[in-house]
Design brief:
about 220 residues, mainly alpha, two-stranded antiparallel sheet, 9 helices, about 60% helix
Length: about 220
């Protein structure tokens, strides 16, 4: 009797110890990762921290409960943005495109001017893109990078053909990164360059601010 009880206790302890390893991540090879992109981890903690910064900014801004409810997909949106950023980085690198700190500052100034000042820009980014103040420049980096990628490819983002050319480059970059997403967030679609549980076309992820329109054939 004592031996059976001892065996049962050992098995129970083993089960409890194993449980966190099995549930920490959809892929046992990468516990605690929200996704693995090009062999590099994006931790669940990183995604949650980005989402928490947005929630804090929303509370500080006194945003309505209705507006906050619209960001129910916030964790997925943040993971999507983090993955997309890395895909865009790879596509830009493959095309020989670089982005300078000065270019990011310039587009921030242009965006602020369009939004009625930096405070207005922070409001627009928070409400429309779910971007906290501390995340603005990382997000605006895509505003510089995407048009420059298009120009490097000789593509015009204002035309279907140009969008298709950029989409092809992004798909190739995405595929080369072998993106593995924790099932709790969905899966990554290389062709659409998006997280399956977060619906948005890549062309709509970046709203071009004045002075940053891609130049066809440049």
């Amino acid at each position: 009797m004592h031996r059976r009880r001892r065996t049962a206790l050992v098995l129970s302890a083993a089960t409890l110890l194993a449980a966190p390893l099995l549930t920490a991540c959809g892929s046992e090879a990468h516990p605690g990762a929200a996704a693995v992109v090009g062999g590099d981890r994006i931790d669940v903690a990183t995604v949650q921290a980005e989402a928490a910064d947005v929630r804090t900014a929303q509370e500080s801004a006194g945003q309505s409960e209705e507006l906050v409810k619209k960001t129910g997909q916030l964790n997925r949106a943040k993971l999507h943005s983090l993955i997309f950023g890395r895909v865009l980085d790879r596509a830009a690198k493959d095309a020989g495109v670089t982005v300078s700190r000065k270019e990011i500052q310039e587009i921030r100034a242009a965006a602020a001017a369009q939004s009625g000042g930096d405070k207005g820009l922070r409001t627009v980014m928070l409400e429309q893109r779910w971007v906290a103040p501390g995340q603005i420049e990382d997000d605006l980096r895509k505003e510089v990078q995407l048009p420059k990628l298009a120009r490097a490819l000789g593509a015009d983002l204002q035309t279907p053909a140009g969008q298709q050319a950029v989409s092809k480059a992004l798909t190739e970059a995405s595929t080369s990164l072998h993106i593995d997403v924790n099932p709790r967030y969905g899966s990554w679609d290389d062709k659409k360059v998006q997280l399956s549980t977060y619906r948005t076309a890549w062309i709509k992820q970046v709203t071009t601010f004045p002075g940053q329109e891609p130049e066809a054939g440049a």
